[in-house]
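Known limitations

Files may contain more than one protein. Parsers should not assume a single record per file. Below, a two-record file is shown to illustrate correct handling: read the sequence, read the token line, then continue until end of file.
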Amino acid sequence: MDSAKNTILVPVDFSDISRHALYHAVEVAKHFNNQLALLHIMEDGLFRGLLSFGKSDEKEKIEKEALSNLNELAQDIKKVHGVNASTHVREGKVYKMIAEAADALKCDSIIMGSNGASGMEKIIGSNASRVIMQTNVPVVVVKSAQTANSYKNIVFPLDLTMESRQKISWAIHLGKAYQSTIRILTYHTDDEQGNTRLTAALRQVENMLEDKGVKFTRHILNNLDASFAEETLKYAEAINADLILVMTHQEDLGLGEYLMGTEAQQIVNKSERIPVMCVKPRRTGISSEFAV
């Protein structure tokens, strides 16, 4: 979704949910004049089993069939939508292969399904959270088919643990591209200092959006009746949002590893209809909260 890196990676396991994500990606690619990279992963555990029984021919047959199916999808996308799509088949752990492919193919984003169909070959959906933790590019998680794909109403949950300028830059980027309204959602706390910091964060976000000519609204909850993640989902559904934009707030464990923050995880897991874009903070140059 960036002019410098104009390829969107789409993992495909041929389940309905991955097809929903694929055609969601097609619409995004059409809007930004991007191209797609269709990726099918052959789960390494399955094929180790085949090889242990001397069925290398079976593995080659499955790989050839997967590539043929991807090529058919790519040809259909080009014919119907005018979007170019390259095709790729890899073997290994699903989330690792997706992250590696995004890097190798210089993709600027990933659009993938979650809660995929059951069965050994329907494995994309169960790996969405791991992909988000492994990759350095934004991941849009799609769970349902949508008749239209235009990010006109984007929910921007604002608290002191999930925000960074990177997330705001994506809000501005999408807001300008789609002529969107950024729906800022935040809340009052029982702590005066916390409220002061949230007010400063809100002011800074609004100033940046206004400076770039992006429309926005604010909605401040007087108190949280549930978790902020649940309140975010409730608000997003109430306004019929097209996208929820979250910072994954991953924490460095000191071993080069990351964990997804609880709020982001809940939003990804519980959003049944509205796509969720997860933006990962970089290791350097990003503050986990706004300065007062």
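...continuing to the second record:
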Amino acid sequence: MEKMIEELLKEFRQGSKRAAARIISLIENEAPEGKEILRVLYKESGRSYIVGITGPAGAGKSTLTDALVKLMRHRGYRVGVVAVDPTSPFTGGALLGDRVRMSDLTLDPGVFIRSMASRGHLGGLSWAARDALVVLDAFGCDYILVETVGAGQSQVDVVKVADTVVLVTVPGLGDDIQAAKAGIMEIGDIFVVNKADRGDADQVVRYLQSILEQQTKTEGWLPPVIKTVAWRGEGVEELLDAVERHRSFLVNSGHLDPLRKMRLKEEIIERVERLIFARLKKEVRMDGVLEEVYSRQLDPLSAAEALVGEIIPQAGSAGRK
């Protein structure tokens, strides 16, 4: 296994897209080799700037991402794309293929595109997708774009990985924007009204601006609202300029490092929870405890504390006595 990992890493560091794709597949499949490679590559990451692109289904996120990648390449950036799609109920893989929709970019040596399944994660990002960002970071991407599935109030995981979040909407959603205000509205750093060649785009822009004047995600930054017609490339340059302004703002104001540290703290805690849960499912035997709870000799909270205490003794001090 060690020899295979060494050869794969050697190809990866030489810029092999095939090696990068194979590493991401190992991570998706939760192979031991994938975990070992991820540990190595994490030390080589930390240079990419991550932009999340989210919004409701049908907003044109893929078309906008495609246009943004082309402009980034024109400006000389090396770009990675993680396109998260709904999970196929048959294969477990991505139901839609953004690599198909962006097929003209796949031959560009400065672009790496990977479609990944959401795998039932309500927040929209699986752990494999989050780990793929580390791979693309170590691969030398200047920017990594994370395009999520159609966003609702529960699908806000993109804020856990992105330095800049672009929230895309379109004219004609009406009450949907109002409904989303309490959820995804708070995560946006830049707002895009795509398909702005439709009639009421200016009205949507004014509505969003009125909301954003009353709430800001980051002190000192008022999220801009930008009109785009992605399929024609209109407004895309203004969008990229806004992304670069937001990046400069985060760096110059001292917000970027605390933001990334906060995200890492949350990630570590989530990974601890995930490992404990997996261990509980694998190791804890519930038969006796279940009978005690069913017969009302023990309450569910004390039962849970006792079970956790079998793995983490100090955590179960309030359990069964």
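Parsers that stop after the first record will miss the second one. For reference, the second record is described as follows. DSSP finds twelve helices and seven strands in the chain.
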